[in-house]
Each structure stands twice: as structure tokens, then as C-alpha cells.
Amino acid sequence: MDYLYDGTFEGMLTCIHLHYYKERATGIFNADAYQMNLLGNFFIVDTDEDKAAVVYNAVEEKIGHYTLRNAYKVFLSSVEDKEMRILRYLVKGFKVGPKINLMHGDDVVIGVTEIVQRINKEVERMIQFVRFSELEGGILYSRIEPDHDVLELLAGHFTDRYKNERIVIHDVTRMKALFAHGGKWYVVDMDEDIMISFAKEEKEYRELWRNYFDSIAIKERINPSCQRNFVPMRYRKHLVEFGSEM
Questions:
Q1: Which residues are within 8 A (CB) of 162 and not within 5 positions of it... i.e. 6 or more apart?
Q2: pLDDT of residue 242
Q3: Deepest in the core among 18, 103, 118, 157, taking most CB within 10 A?
Q4: Sign of torsion over alpha carbons 226, 227, 231, 235
């Protein structure tokens, strides 16, 4: 049975509950991306908070919080078959318990670990590469286009670092944004082409930053290949020092 869900973590956990108590899942898919066919055996799942909570609590109690966090990070990834990877990981975890994450030679665990490492690496890069611009009203705004859905994983760092500021980190690929102020944060939907008004001083700030970036560079030691390793091309679109415009 293919289970089709609404794209939420709770919806996916509901599918896992059905895998155990209704019929085994041959696939778990986001309903919006599912290619239906006349011969397909599928079931459209209504997200059930109670069923999701049963699975959530069972994972935390029987396999551990670390496993639960790994599963959530895989869910935030853009890997095509992430739902089934999570299912296989949790099924194995329910059989062997917390020691699953010590099974470094197991194919299921290896697959999950590799995705988690990709997510962690992107979070690290986003922390390094997020550049804020000042909007009218003193709001700090940044546009990003990460490979994976990491806004929530960035929240703790930037909420703590800018606890006295109002910040917005806008994931234009997924049309959602992180809003943070006073130590609190939340994520909301936000269109890619939303109209924003920069502060009058923003252009001057950008020019000063570019001049500083150019002045500290040692021309004779510029190594484009090495630079690309540390600052991949896909991140430069929104970096002021690489020519990002307002």
C-alpha cells in the first residue's frame, strides 16, 4: 500500500502508524508529488495528531531522542525517498533499540547517517554565509536558497545571536521565512517576490563591506579553486562580497 500524506512530519508519522496497525507501506509519498496510475494501490492519509504522537513517543522511549532527531533531519532533506529511508530506519530501531546508531556497517544506518551529515554541513554553511540587510524599521533581512529545508535548524543560532534584533531569514526556494525577536522564533509561509524596502543606509553599508573584503585580500594569493571549495558557487548569489545586489 502506498500512503499519501500532506507533507508534514506529523502526516508522515501517521503513515508509519498505519504501516504497523493497518497495512504495511510499500511507499510513503507527499500527495502533491505522487504520480497516480489506474493500477496503483494507494491510500490518502489524513494527518492524525494522536497517531503521530504515539509513533513520536515510541521512538523517543524505545530507540532514543538521538534517533528521533536523526529521523527529523532526514525528513527536512530533499532526498527523493526520504520517507521510506526513515521508515526502514525506525523499523530496524524498534527491533534493536538505541544501539542502532552504533551499527555503522548497516546499509540502512549508513544511508541515514549520510543524509544527516549533509544536513549538518549545510546548517554550518548557512551559519557562515547568511548575510543580513537592514530594512526600513530596523529589521534585519536575509535571502537564502539552501538545498535542504534547514530554517528550523538555523533558528537556535540566529535567535540567540541576534536576541535584541528583529530578523527575517527568507528561504525563497521553499517560500517560507524564519522570524525571530527577543529570543523567540517561528516559521511562516512567505512568497518569493514579496515587496521589501531597504533602509536608506543599506547601499552604503554594502559598499563599505565590499571595500573591506577587497582591501584585506592579498591579490597575489587569490586562489579561485580553493575559494570555490570554501564558498561554493551556489551560495554566492546572496553574498554581498560576491556582488549581490539589492
A1: 140, 180
A2: 67
A3: 18
A4: negative
List, as own/partner pairs, every contact residues 21-29 make where C-beta atoms lie below 8 angstroms and the sequence separation is at least 24, other chains included: 25/1, 25/84, 25/87, 26/1, 26/2, 27/2, 27/3, 27/83, 27/84, 28/2, 28/3, 28/83, 28/84, 28/87, 29/2, 29/3, 29/4, 29/5, 29/83
Nearest-angstrom CA–CA distance, 167 and 98: 38
Burial class (CB in 10 A: 0-12, 13-18, 19+), 82: buried
pLDDT higher at 121 or 208? 121
CA distance 190 to 177: 6
With contact defined as beta carbons under 8 Å apart, do 222 and 213 qualify? no
Highest-confidence segment of 38-47, 96-105, 202-211, 225-234: 96-105
- Residue 221 C-alpha cell reads as 594569493
**For residue range 1-41, what is the model confidence (pLDDT) as tens digits?**
999 999 999 999 999 999 999 999 999 999 988 877 656 78
Tell me the mean pLDDT in the region 200-220. 72
The candidate with the shortest Cα–Cα distance to 140, out of 181, 190, 88, is 181
Measure the CA–CA gap between 228 and 226, rounded to whole angstroms: 5
Alpha helices in 9-64, H assignment, sequence order:
9-21, 49-62
